Every structure is written in C-alpha cells, then in structure tokens.
Amino acid sequence: MAHSVMALPCAILSTCFLTGCVLPTYSSNTRLAPLASTYFSNNLPLTNGPGPPTPFVVSENHAEVSAEPGTPVIRAQHSSEARLQIYSGEFQISSPDIDASAERLVAAVTALGGYLQSRSNVSVTVRVPSSHFQALVDQLDEIGTVGEKWIKTDDVTDQYQDLGLRLSVLDASRQRLLQLVERAANVDELLKLEEQLSKVTLEIESLKGNLKKLDSQITYSTVKVQFKRRSFAGLNHTSPFAWINRLGPEHVLSGFQMEADIGKAAIVSKWFTGRKPVDVPDGFVLLKSSRDELQAISPDDARVWYREFDVSNDASLDFWTKAVRTHLVEHQGCRLVDESEVSAENTMFKRRAHQMLLAASSDRGPLLHLLTISVKPRTLRPGHNTVQITEFTAPPELYEEYRGAVGLASDFPIAVRVQIEETGPMLLSTHP
Question: Considering the domain boundaries, does residue 236 fall inside one?
Fold first, then answer.
C-alpha cells in the first residue's frame, strides 16, 4: 500500500500532463484550514468515542472559531506563539477506602468538564479538558495520599501541521482525480483513475483519523490513577513522643480489657483509684475506669477510650495537635476527613480543644476515628501540663448511631461531621 501511495503523485502528474490540467502548488506558509474543511464538510461529524465529542476547530489569527453543527474542521496552522501541547499524567494514590477515593476523583473530573474513560478494581483513567489539567492535579491531594507521579508534556505542533499539509495536498489531488474521472475517454482509463482515487481516499481517511486522535489528545488530557489501599497495619513509624505512639484506631482495637469491672473487689478498686474522669456514653458499658482513664464499649463493638498524659508545659495545644496529626496520618496511614477547634461546654473554666475525624482501614474493615485533644495545666506540679485525649472508633455504619451519645458524655461538643452513603459505608464529603 505504501509503495502504491508513493507512486500516486507521479501517476497524477502524468495524467495531468496528458490532459493539460494544472495542480495547485503549496509552500510552508500555506494555510491548511480552508482545503481541509472543504473535504471534511462533505463527511459525517467526527466524534471522540465514549466521552463528549471533540470537534475540530479553525484558528484564525490565533482566535478559535467553532464550526457549524455537523461540519467539523481541522485546526489552522499555528504560529510558534501558539504551540499545540498534549498533557498527560500518571499517579499513585494511597487511600484507606479506594472506592470512595475513586468516586471523589470521578466527581472532581466531572465538575471540571471531563469524563471517566475506564476503571478497573484499583485503576481509574479519566479525560479532562487540557485547560483544567493542572486544576485536577492540584485536587489529587484531597482524594488520597499522592505517592509517585509522572507528568508528561508533548509538543505536537510540527506533527499536526505536517499531517494537515499532507491532508490538504491529498484532498486537492482527490478533487482533481474526480474531475478526470468525469472526462475519462474509455473504460481502461476510468478504471485506472478510480483505483488511484480509491488509494488517495484511503490515505485521506488515515490522515483524518490521525488528526482526530491528535486533536482529542490536545483538547482532553489523560490522567491515570493507580490506587493503593493504605492501612495502619504493618506500619512501624513512630513518634518521638512515647505517649503519642499509644494513640490511634489500632490501639483502641487491641488495647481494651474485655472484662468489665464487677464484684466487691472492683468496687474497692474504684474507691482507691477515684471516680471516672468522664461520663460513660449512653449505650456503652464501662470496661475500665480510673482517675486518668476510661474504657467503654457498645454491644456492636464501637469503642471509647479517654486517657490523660503528663507532658511538659513548654508545648502548646497547637504543638501537640500537629504532633498527633503527623503520627496518625503520616505514620499510621489514617486519612484526615475533617478537623475543627472546639470549646468546652458546661465547665467552670473556658477550655479549648482540637478535634479530628480520621478514616482508616483494618482487618475488621473501614473505620472512622474521632479524636479530641485538649491541654490542662497541672496546678500541683509546676512545669507540667496534662494532655487529655478522647478517642472514639467505630465502623462507618455505626459512627452516626453513637456520635451523639459520645458528644453528650464529653466536655467538648463534636464539631466534625461526615456524610455516610445510605447504600453502604462509603465516605462522601465533610460538613462544617
């Protein structure tokens, strides 16, 4: 086929020499759009497959002009100031809930005018308008923890212009062949011209397909995301502060004494250890209590753990908040869903706390972990403060059921929220 196509110009020139016709000449400055559009306007509209159609556009003096409906045309030749670029990217994103993160990715792409191209279990490929490519890249941190990333930019200006020039030349040759067919002197000459016309038409269709593909890649960038499930299981990173290493859903799941205090011995023990530091939430049973600790559990395994830790008074609440957040998110693989500053209610002294809602995956499935941290001065021990931590861990489907009771039993209201999809435990969005 390639050998036959290369022989076409010679055959056409020979035919024109015999008939006295003149072929048009082309220079490097020839504008491509009018000739190409002459051909395309006689054919069906071009589309881009599963996503929204991407019509070709004529750019006159670097201003884009939309074609009439049903009349797709090719981009005109661009100057060096208007280069044609193809943007693409591949990213690895870790998330405790891959399905939820994939849904957030598709929602972000749709909001930017893009569409889903394909999806497997852990891989998602999307197309987004090239003008919004960077906007999507900037939002990936909200979808999960971005690991390895690969971004590529290809300048296809010369390739695009070369294809357009070749298409214009072939289209002019096709028009001339059509004229010669009408004036064929005999059957043999007609058959030869029709064979040449068929070859030119096939080459035109091939070039048109290549230009369509390039135009689609220029107009819509491709982003591939490979998701990886992120769990605190198996992570061994630690905080420089020993008490912080004892926080998180992993420890709440594994650190409980699963036998409630009952009997006379327990009553005597409570008399020596003091009353419980906070109330037991409604619907929970007390497992353990002392002056600085409380453990409680619901019948379906939602858990609350209150603890106090002695720390230096040199560090503020903001310092300990950042240290706890770093450990749980960066070291233990939790995902921060929402956080907020809260103030104590119904207390004698005004106190401030920081609240975080985190998502994590475990051997028991996805979990929501609510953590409230506050700092209280130690009046009897100058130079020391007490950090008070309340942790509430539950599967997503149980979180809202017990959230209110946990808030009522605490000095601090719950200011962070998460919407739960009715059809399953999928995290969708946070609310202030």
Answer: no
d(CA 277, CA 286): 12
How many whole angstroms separate alpha carbon 132 and alpha carbon 138?
10
3-state secondary structure the chain: CHHHHHCHHHHHHHHHHHHCCCCCCCCCCCCCHHHHHHHHCCCCCCCCCCCCCCCCCEEECCEEECCCCCCCCCCCCCCCCCCCEEEEEEEEEEECCHHHHHHHHHHHHHHCCCEEEEECCCEEEEEEEHHHHHHHHHHHHHCCEEEEEEEEEEECHHHHHHHHHHHHHHHHHHHHHHHHHHCCCCHHHHHHHHHHHHHHHHHHHHHHHHHHHHHHHHHEEEEEEEEEECCCCCCCCCCCCCCHHHCCHHHHHHCCCCCCCCHHHHHHHHHHHCCCCCCCCCCCEEEEEECCEEEEECCCCCEEEEEEEEEECCCCHHHHHHHHHHHHHHHCCCEEEEEEEEECCCCCCCCEEEEEEEEEEECCEEEEEEEEEEEEECCCCCCEEEEEEEEEEECHHHHHHHHHHHHHCCCCCCCCEEEECCCCCCEEEEEC
Number of folded domains in the chain?
Answer: 3
* pLDDT tens profile 243-286: 999 999 988 988 876 544 444 444 444 444 456 688 899 999 99
176 and 199 share one domain? yes
Which of 194, 161, 170 is closest to 23 using CA atoms? 170
- Domain residues for the domain of 144 are 85-155+224-229
Q: What's the full length of the chain, in residues?
A: 432
Asked whether residue 269 is domain-assigned, the answer is: yes
Same domain, 332 and 418: yes
Please indicate, yes or no, whether residues 163 and 150 belong to a single structural domain of this protein: no
Has residue 235 been placed in a domain?
no
What does residue 106 show for φ and ψ, rounded to 5 degrees? -65, -40
CATH number at residue 290: 3.40.1000.10
Higher pLDDT, 42 or 112: 112
Looking at the fold, whether 90 and 149 belong to one and the same domain comes out as yes
- Is residue 148 within 8 Å of residue 92, measured between CB atoms? yes
Taking the complete model, does pTM exceed 0.70, yes or no? no
Predicted confidence (pLDDT) per residue in 290-314, tens digit: 888 999 999 999 999 999 998 877 7
